[in-house]
Design goal:
Length: 226
């Protein structure tokens, strides 16, 4: 997409214009008219097939490292992701799927009040689908889903209309295994239980992402992301 950011002014008269029988080598000219002067505030939006979001320390960065070639910072503390990260998954048939990981969301992020995710929610607006990662070792993990959906609705209702998959991380934890079935029954979307530490179901997740990509991708989207 192209647009005219600012129009230049009309050109002035060059020395050729002043050429005459009396002046065979003119050295004068006229300045042109002033062009437009405008200021623009440009807002970058990443283009990715899947947007990955969750609360701090849910394991988003660890997951991105596990499934892609991205190498975000990983640590046992909150807010290790401070800028959006873009990971690329390459399959055997050379199809590439891009996943955008945005900084951790906290309650109030949609209102630009709290957390590093507040100013980065715009990066998931252009994604084909959303991946919500929840910490299955936490008490009542389904409440994380409720809070994430609340933030999405308050930021932009259309985001909740995208295809959504819930990824339940930290399934290597004993409490997570006990809560899995109850969490699955509560959620209205598919729940994929994984562990980035022990690499549980990572291969299944990769197959699932490819299947969803094949179902959602269009020629227009392929051209957009090149």
């Amino acid at each position: 997409q192209r647009f005219i950011a600012a129009r230049g002014g009309l050109g002035g008269k060059g020395n050729y214009y002043f050429l005459s029988n009396m002046n065979r080598a003119p050295v004068e000219c006229e300045l042109g008219a002033n062009g437009d002067k405008k200021k623009y505030k440009l807002e970058l939006q990443l283009i990715a097939h899947f947007g990955l979001l969750g609360f701090p320390n849910a394991g988003k960065s660890s997951l991105l490292r596990a499934i892609s070639r991205a190498r975000p910072i990983v640590g046992d503390y909150e807010f290790t992701t401070r800028q959006p990260q873009l990971g690329s998954i390459e399959y055997d048939d050379f199809v590439q799927i891009h996943v955008a990981d945005i900084p951790g969301i906290v309650p109030g992020a949609s209102k630009q009040e709290l957390g590093l995710g507040s100013k980065f929610l715009r990066h998931i607006e252009r994604c084909l689908a959303l991946l919500l990662i929840i910490d299955m070792s936490a008490e009542r993990p389904w409440e994380q889903y409720d809070l994430l959906m609340k933030e999405l609705r308050e930021y932009k209702t259309d985001l909740t209309k995208k295809p959504i998959t819930i990824i339940g991380n930290k399934m290597d934890d004993h409490d997570a295994k006990l809560q899995l079935e109850q969490t699955r029954q509560y959620l209205p979307y598919p729940l994929l239980p994984i562990s980035t530490v022990e690499k549980i179901n990572i291969d299944k997740l990769l197959l699932y992402l490819r299947k969803q990509y094949d179902e959602l991708i269009t020629d227009e989207w392929r051209d957009r992301i090149k």
